[in-house]
Known about the structure:
Strands 1-2-3-5-4 form a 5-stranded antiparallel β-sheet, with helices on one face. The radius of gyration is 17 Å and the shape is globular. The N and C termini lie far apart (52 Å). By secondary structure, it is an alpha+beta fold. It has 4 helices and 5 strands, in the order E-H-H-E-E-H-E-E-H. Helix 1 packs antiparallel against helix 2 (53-72) and helix 2 packs antiparallel against helix 3.
Amino acid sequence: MKSATPPNGHVPQHSALEREFTMRFTSTPRGARLARRLVSHRLNDWGHPYATTVNETLTLITAELTANAVRHGHVPGRDFHVQLTLTEGTFRIEVTDTRAEKQPPAASPSSADSLSESGRGLLLVAALADDWGVSPRKAAPGKTVWAELHTRTKGHPMTHRVAPEPTDVDLLLVTASLLRDDLGLRPEDASHGDRRP
């Protein structure tokens, strides 16, 4: 049996890549906000409108991972990288920074002190994502923090996902509200005109 090589010369991996968005951003709060917005816009373009669960969930996850890349992975003069892929019903968001020595805690984020000001972002990621983790950056110093969300057709989450506890829902609602309020409130971002409907 003869194997076909795709026209672009890349050998396919185990799963068929359906969609991909990738971009570098400055390691600043503004870069993190822009990454979050562009991921949301891309999901909308891919048929997952702003108000859908898939879009809102992945936007929140992106916000947390990019904020962590800026806060904990910042190296002066270096950008962070975002990659969003859709492969056979699984969305995967990867945020790569160039700081190898600052790793997320090895312990489960649920064991973080509830009064602590750090670690809450990973609590949110763990509550929202079907899976997440950290891997070394390929061919250079740094790390990639990734999260996956499994969906079925038409952008609805798969039924096997476990709903967050009520305290997690409260946290999600507050975070979503803060993210929505952030849109259009900063003068430097007012020219974008990309407020959600």
